[in-house]
Specification:
This protein has about 70 residues and is mainly alpha-helical. About 65% of the residues lie in helices and about 10% in strands. β1 and β2 form a beta hairpin. The longest helix is centred in the middle third of the chain and has 23 residues.
Length: about 70
């Protein structure tokens, strides 16, 4: 898949929009798992941890998509 606009029900959106949506869903799943195991209470700054987690997930999706498009 190339990084071209995506036709989403007749509306062209940038691929980063779809990537951010997918990353948000994955983030929610990982966050619930972290809550279940008590990881959030063990980190120094929970808000920074959650932001970093989301950025890492979104970046990983972009890297995987870039490798796949070759």
């Amino acid at each position: 898949m190339k990084f071209n606009e995506i036709n989403l029900f007749g509306l062209y959106v940038a691929p980063i929009t779809v990537i951010m949506g997918v990353a948000w869903v994955v983030y929610l799943i990982v966050r619930r798992a972290c809550d279940r195991f008590g990881l959030i209470q063990r980190v120094w700054h929970p808000a920074l941890f959650e932001l970093t987690l989301y950025v890492m997930i979104a970046s990983s999706i972009v890297i995987v998509m870039a490798r796949w498009s070759r």
